[in-house]
Amino acid sequence: MDRSQLLKGTTALLILGVLKDGELYGYEIAQRIRERSGAFIDPGEGWLYPALHRLEKHGALQASWRDGGLGPRRRYYRITEGGLRTFNAQSAEWEQFARSVRLVTAQPANA
User: Fold this and answer.
1) Per-residue DSSP letters for the chain?
2) What domains can be seen in the chain, in order of their start residue?
3) How far does CA 32 lie from the centroid of its chain?
4) Which of 17, 37, 48, 101 could serve as 43's disulfide partner, Cβ 3.0–4.6 Å?
5) What is the pLDDT of the chain when averaged over all its residues?
6) Where are the beta strands (DSSP E) in the chain?
């Protein structure tokens, strides 16, 4: 199965899932997703940043620029109350979907 197709429906859930633990900047978000997935999911800039901007536009995230110390300024993202509600709803829907897929695929072939 094409992993990128699975990611399309879970991008917001993945981002909100790591941000519910605290605010992070883009690279840190990608790194957390990579770490928590055991490197199975490797977020690229091509889907991460557009998703962050969409979530911010829809009010699920708030962002602010901060000085990067020795490096460039960084845009930090934090989840909003609306984003937390979105996460909870999407998480429940994902669990139901995954449970349904397991039920279908676990059935004996001649059942």
Assistant:
1) --HHHHHHTTHHHHHHHHHTT--EEHHHHHHHHHHHTTTS----HHHHHHHHHHHHHTTSEEEEEE--TTS--EEEEEE-HHHHHHHHHHHHHHHHHHHHHHHHHHS-TT-
2) 3-106 (1.10.10.10)
3) 10
4) 48
5) 92
6) 24-25, 61-66, 74-79
Q: What is the mean pLDDT of residues 8-32?
A: 95
- Paired with 63 in beta bridges are 77
Q: Which residue in this structure is represented by tokens 């998703």?
A: 51
23 band by pLDDT with thresholds 50, 70 and 90: very high
Question: Percent of the chain having pLDDT more than 90?
Answer: 77
User: Tokens standing for 80?
Assistant: 């909003």
**pTM score, two decimals?**
0.88
Beta-carbon neighbour count of residue 82 at 10 Å? 13
